[in-house]
Design brief:
Elements: H1 7-24, H2 32-45, E1 53-54, E2 57-58, H3 65-77, H4 81-107, H5 110-121, H6 124-129, H7 135-156, H8 159-176, H9 178-195, H10 204-228, H11 230-246, H12 260-268, H13 273-286, H14 292-308, H15 323-338, H16 343-371, H17 377-396, H18 400-431, H19 433-444, E3 451-454, H20 460-466, E4 472-473, E5 485-490, E6 502-510, H21 518-521, H22 526-529, E7 531-538
Parallel strand pairs: 3-4, 3-5
Antiparallel strand pairs: 1-2, 5-7, 6-7
Length: about 550
């Protein structure tokens, strides 16, 4: 039995707090984080939570809840990056308790719940979602809270659980549409079908839970109707998730890669992804005894992955909603494996994990010393102290499994301290052009009304920093605009203004910081991957 009331357990959560502290104050990354923050800030600034806009265009896509929560945070704390991220962070921490409680409910073992919560909160994709905040942080949190409460109802026939299940499902639906209901329904269907206890669904408490779901979903339907009419109601009722699945106007990103989410999970669930795949293999092909617990969590996750691999529009963070479930599965199976007689499998398991840990530490050392080195002395000192403490605690832990858990968790948290304090900060401040241009505009005290963007639909980090929707000029509008004015234009389009009298007043490097490549990370080839964005004065 794991006794988590040990210094190493609390030390890991201290490292998590350091990760969150650095991430809280990072500049916003384009596209989604800066875009969503700008949209939520418009709601708060104009005190209009009934309409949702992307720039100046009505936004018929994701539902409102994520934007409402960030807008409410802005109302309370004012316009700040940390205020935008705060609701996602708080909900994720609360959902960590949901992971713990669902695990404990399923397995009747506190240690499985504690370990599952640790796996969930230290997964790379979850840590990333807490500074590059999109809708998935709120969605994932609401989903696991909903699943926990509905599972509690099925276990204990508790009315309050059915009502809370309906509320949390409505909140998940109000964050990203039908996919939320589908995932909750899939987990519960598998559980009920396996035990063949369909009679539990023929219960007035279930009907009340469903009624509560519709009641708490009403604000979304009303706002869609208010802004878009019946077209909006039809979209949120049937079209939102389906359109993304079919691609359509969202594009065909990863449409032909039918293993996309299987290999995405390798980094998204770091440092536990290897464990998940090995344990899935063991449960599927070695362990002959499969209980409801494994069937419910693993089957839900795998069905979701397989179905999503047929989507015509794929993004890595779409995997986040199943991370709580695979955290529970992995935690339960690793503790069960530790208690079995299969020492040969467990030995291979440990050796492969130590290899991953060693390679990870070498990669982290290379990143922090060569590719994007730590240059601030105070950051370097803090990082070395935390690394030293981590190593000291690591060698003090006698139990091999606990030592391995601590080592992997400490590694991923130290890696994210580096990422949030140095790597992403460097990327955003030096390779996100809109952020650099906004700082130049503020430093030079330029008149914001005279700044335009050429032939680009949006410039979210610029809009966020300057607190306005930067107007766009097309080629035929350049001569008509009253001079002098400033134009944000890319190197690819600079030739379009050769016929105008102009001068370049600021040059910024540009790279899509959410889509990294080795050629960009490598200092020797980085320059070849970087574009330039200019702030040009037109006379």
């Amino acid at each position: 039995m794991i006794n988590f009331f040990k210094p190493w357990y609390f030390f890991l959560f201290f490292l998590l707090a350091v990760v969150l502290g650095f991430g809280l104050f990072l500049p916003l990354m384009e596209n989604d984080s800066a875009q969503h923050a700008t949209m939520a800030w418009r709601m708060a600034r104009e005190n209009d939570f009934a309409h949702i806009f992307k720039g100046k265009q009505p936004y018929l896509d994701k539902p409102h809840l994520h934007f409402w929560l960030s807008g409410l945070s802005f109302e309370i704390f004012g316009k700040a990056e940390w205020a935008y991220r705060l609701p996602a962070i708080l909900l994720t921490l609360i959902s960590g308790y949901g992971v713990f409680s669902l695990s404990k409910l399923m397995y009747q073992k506190t240690e499985i719940g504690q370990l599952a919560a640790l796996f969930y909160l230290t997964s790379q994709t979850i840590l990333l979602s807490l500074h590059d905040v999109r809708t998935d942080a709120v969605l994932t949190s609401m989903l696991i809270l909903a699943i926990w409460q509905w599972a509690k109802f099925l276990e204990k026939n508790n009315l309050s659980a059915a009502l809370l299940g309906g509320i949390f499902t409505a909140c998940a639906y109000s964050t990203k549409g039908q996919v939320a209901v589908a995932l909750v329904g899939l987990f519960l269907f598998i559980r009920v079908a396996y035990q063949k206890d369909w009679e539990k669904l023929l219960n007035y408490k279930v009907a009340l839970g469903i009624l509560v779901f519709f009641i708490f979903s009403l604000p979304i339907f009303l706002t869609y109707y208010h802004q878009f009419g019946w077209e909006g109601v039809k979209f949120i009722a049937m079209g939102q998730s389906a359109e993304r699945f079919q691609g359509g106007e969202f594009g065909q990103a990863g449409s032909q890669d039918y293993f996309f989410y299987f290999h995405t999970l390798l980094w998204a669930f770091l440092p536990w992804s290897l464990w998940f795949y090995l344990l899935t293999f063991r449960v599927g092909f070695i362990d002959k005894k499969k209980s409801l617990k494994e069937i419910a969590t693993l089957s839900t996750a795998l069905i979701f992955i397989v179905v999503m691999n047929f989507s015509q529009f794929k993004l890595p963070h779409y995997i986040n909603p199943i991370v709580p479930l695979i955290s529970i599965f992995t935690a339960a199976q690793i503790l069960n494996l530790n208690q079995t007689e299969n020492q040969k499998f467990f030995k291979a398991f440990k050796i492969s994990s130590y290899i991953i840990l060693l390679l990870g530490m070498l990669l982290l050392a290379s990143m922090a010393s060569y590719f994007f080195p730590i240059r601030k002395r105070e950051i370097l000192i803090l990082f070395l102290i935390l690394m030293g403490l981590s190593f000291f605690i690591f060698i003090q832990i006698k139990n091999q499994l606990y030592r391995l858990i601590f080592g992997l968790a400490a590694f991923i948290l130290l890696a994210n301290i580096y990422l949030n304090s140095t790597f992403y900060k460097n990327l955003i401040e030096n390779y996100q052009a809109d952020t650099q241009i906004a700082k130049f505009v503020e430093r030079e005290n330029l008149t914001q009304e005279n700044i335009f963007v050429y032939d680009r639909l949006h410039s979210w980090a610029l809009d966020w920093s300057l607190d306005r929707t930067t107007p766009t000029l097309e080629e035929n509008e350049l001569k008509l605009q009253q001079k002098p004015y400033y134009l944000v234009i890319s190197d690819k389009n600079l030739h379009q203004i050769e016929h105008l009298r102009h001068s370049v007043v600021f040059t910024a490097n540009e790279f899509r910081v959410t889509r990294l490549s080795f050629k960009f990370i490598n200092p020797k080839t980085r320059a070849s991957q970087v574009n330039q964005i200019f702030l040009v004065k037109i006379f």
